[in-house]
Amino acid sequence: MKQLMIALLVLTLLLTFSCSKKTAPEPVETPEPTQPETVEAETQEPVAETIESEVEEKTEPKASLLFRDKRPIAIMINNHPDARPQAGWAHAKIAYEILVEGKMTRILLLSDADEGVIGPIRSARPAFFEITAEYRALYSHVGNFEYVAESPMLNYMVDWDEFSHGGYFRSDHRYAPHNLYGTMEGVYASAEASGVDLAGSEVLEDHFRIYDQPTDYTGGKPAETISFTYDNAQFLDYRYDEADQAYIKSINGIDVADENTGDVLKITNFIILERPHGKMPNGIHEYVDYLTPGKARLFIQGQEFELDYTKAASEEPMKFRLDGEELVFNPGFVFINVVPEGTPITVE
Could you tell me what percent of the chain has a pLDDT over 90? Predict the structure, then answer.
């Protein structure tokens, strides 16, 4: 019995010992390491960037007619001190200043603007008839129609006297005779209603031309200021403004400005035309000889150039030539002073 008990004890110890032993984990089959797939990046060939050069292509300036498709209006502008500043410089393309009786001057403004107030307007003067005629223009004035009626130039222009036609009004901010104004739209509408052909004349095809972009002038004499007078009372000065490449006109030190806007008149193309002067048969009005060939002086970009001047007939356009070539104006306003021969002119 004792032996049996010992045998059972030994068996129990053996079993306990075998259960307490850790079971070794079965070996796990480790997969062979695989090489990661190499994704070949698509090689981008260097693309040459085309950078468009912003170098402005130099183009030749193109010339077009100053007036072409529409009959211009030639407005007889009052230049008395009490009439300044005048209205309408901004609506015009070209102006002529010419001596009248009493050593005063008047101005002829030419415009084909669709609208705008222009004035003050004064009476007709014979010295302006040939200029109005060469544009086949509507001649806008107040009074002195009898002189227009007597002139052969009436065959080449349309008289638009305020006494007989519409488009005019009196302003109350000035006194007569310095308060008559007109509107471009009013004169054109009145003329059209009266049956006037407002289409541009063929003669305009042979008239002044203007570039679409500035052209550089070189080789002229320096001309920063130009000074002269018609009557030893009204002193005219034209001083060059480099920033705007234009001349600013002043009368007795006061800059010429537009009454409508207050803006100072800037003249890109300035011409002085010396002409023989005399008296009309009535002994009162100034006579100007436009037909004798001669010289003129062009002031542009701060320089002075000599021009050849001709006018084939009273009703034909003035011609200015520079070095044998017909003058084409730079973009901007054109101002022509017609002065008696021998007028002292100071250029500095």
Answer: 78
The residue-averaged pLDDT of 141-156 equals 94
61 Cβ contact list (under 8 Å, min separation 6): 211, 212, 213, 214, 215
**Which SS3 state, helix, strand or coil, does residue 276 take?**
coil
Output DSSP code: residue 279.
E
Q: What is the CATH number of domain 63-347?
A: 3.50.90.10
What is the residue-wise DSSP string for 200-267? PPGGGGGS-EEESS-----SPEE-SEEEEESSSSSEEEEEEETTTTEEEEEETTEE-B-TTT-PBPEE
- Domain chopping of the chain, boundaries: 63-347
Q: Which residues pair with 159 in a beta bridge?
A: 139
The C-alpha atoms of residue 77 and residue 91 are separated, in whole angstroms, by 13
In the DSSP assignment, the letter for residue 178 is S
Is the peptide bond preceding residue 72 cis, with omega within 30 degrees of 0? Answer: no
Q: How many CB atoms lie within 10 A of CB 285?
A: 16
Could you tell me which residues are beta bridge partners of residue 237? 227, 250
Average pLDDT of the chain, as a whole number: 88
